[in-house]
Design brief:
By secondary structure, the protein is α+β, with helices and mostly antiparallel strands. Helix content is 28%, strand content 38%.
Length: 316
C-alpha cells in the first residue's frame, strides 16, 4: 500500500499561500509584483531526492534543469498570466540516465509550458491551460502502464492501476495540484505583509488530488532580514501536519485508491510531513532571487526527503 502514498507524496502536500515587493521598506515590507508584459526571468533548478524504504538500500538522486518564466498578459483587474516552462532535465543517476522511459516521461512533462493565473498581488490562483496539461498527464499514465506491462502480466491489475491513476486527474483542481507543486511554492509569499523579526502563524490544509480529505497543517512565516542596500528580503517558512489527523486523511486516500484490497495493516498510525524553506526576494520588482525548500515525509520506517533549489540566472 505504501506505493500509493509515494506515488502522490510529491504532489499532495502543497501549500496554498502567496508572494511579491514594496518601496520605502525598512522593517516592514509587503511583497507585491512590479512586472510588465514581456518580462522574462530564468532560474537554475536543482532537486535532490533521498528515499529510505527498508529493506531496500537508500537512494539519493539529483535532478538539474532550467526554469524559464515569461509574463504573457496583464488583465484589467491587475492579474497576470505567467508562462512556466522547464528545460531539459539532467540526472546524476546512471540507471535513470540510461532509461528510455525516464526520458520519454520527461519529454512529455516538459513539452508543454504551464500558463499560470496569478492575481493582482502575484498570488497563484490557477492554470489557464489546464485541459492541455491534463492531456499530457494522461500520456504519462499510458507510458507508465506501458512500462509496467513489461513485467506485470496481469491485465486486470494493470487496468485497475490505470483507472485509479486517471481518477486522480479528472478535475481542474486535481490537475492543478499535480502540475503546480513548484510554481505554487515559487509564488507562495506574494501579497504577504511582513514585519522584521515577527512571525505569522496560521492553520492550513494540504490539498489532496484524489478528492479525499485534505491534510491539516500549521505553518509559520518569518521575515528574517531586509538588506536595504541590495533591496533584498529573506523570509523563512516552516510547516508541519498533525501526525494523527494526517494518518486519518491518508487512510481515506488509500481506501479510495485501493478499495477492497486494503487491509488494516496497510494503514499507518501516524504520518510526519515537515516543510522548511528560505526565500530571498528582490524587493524592487517582486521576483524571487533564490529559494531552498526541503520537505521531509515519514511513514513508519519509510521516509522521503526532497530538497528543491531555485537560483535566478538571468532577467530581461
Amino acid at each position: 500500500m505504501l506505493r500509493y502514498f509515494w506515488t502522490f507524496s510529491w504532489c499532495v502536500f502543497i501549500a496554498s499561500n502567496c508572494y511579491g515587493q514594496t518601496d520605502g521598506f525598512d522593517k516592514e515590507i509587503e511583497l507585491l509584483p512590479k512586472w510588465k508584459v514581456g518580462d522574462k526571468v530564468s532560474y537554475e533548478y536543482v532537486k535532490n531526492v533521498v528515499e529510505k524504504k527498508p529493506p531496500r538500500n537508500p537512494t539519493n538522486v539529483t535532478f538539474q534543469s532550467q526554469v524559464n518564466l515569461e509574463v504573457l498578459e496583464k488583465s484589467k483587474d491587475g492579474g497576470f498570466i505567467v508562462q512556466w516552462k522547464m528545460g531539459n532535465l539532467s540526472v546524476d543517476n546512471a540507471q535513470l540516465a540510461n532509461d528510455q522511459y525516464f526520458h520519454k516521461f520527461m519529454n512529455i512533462t516538459n513539452s508543454l509550458p504551464i500558463e499560470l493565473e496569478l492575481d493582482s498581488d502575484g498570488a497563484y490562483s490557477g492554470v489557464r491551460n489546464w485541459k492541455d496539461v491534463q492531456i499530457k498527464l494522461h500520456e504519462t499514465v499510458d507510458l507508465t502502464i506501458e512500462r509496467l506491462a513489461r513485467t506485470e502480466k496481469d491485465k486486470v491489475r494493470l487496468a485497475f492501476i490505470k483507472k485509479q491513476s486517471l481518477a486522480t486527474m479528472r478535475t481542474r483542481e486535481q490537475v492543478e495540484i499535480l502540475a503546480t507543486k513548484e510554481p505554487q511554492m515559487f509564488f507562495m509569499l506574494m501579497g504577504f505583509p511582513l514585519s522584521l523579526g515577527e512571525s505569522i502563524e496560521y492553520s492550513d490544509v494540504l490539498p489532496n488530488p484524489t478528492g479525499s480529505e485534505p491534510f491539516p497543517s500549521k505553518a509559520v512565516l518569518t521575515l528574517k532580514s531586509v538588506d536595504k542596500k541590495q533591496q533584498l528580503g529573506t523570509v523563512r517558512w516552516k510547516q508541519t501536519i498533525d501526525p494523527e489527523k494526517g494518518a486519518k486523511a491518508l487512510k481515506k486516500t488509500l481506501e479510495s485508491l485501493a478499495g477492497k484490497t486494503a487491509s488494516k495493516d496497510d494503514f499507518p498510525k501516524s504520518v510526519s510531513i515537515e516543510d522548511d524553506a528560505d526565500f530571498v526576494i528582490d524587493l524592487k520588482n517582486g521576483w524571487l532571487e533564490k529559494m531552498t525548500h526541503t520537505r521531509t515525509s515519514t511513514i513508519g520506517e519509510s521516509s522521503r526527503r526532497e530538497t528543491i533549489r531555485f537560483m535566478k540566472t538571468t532577467r530581461k
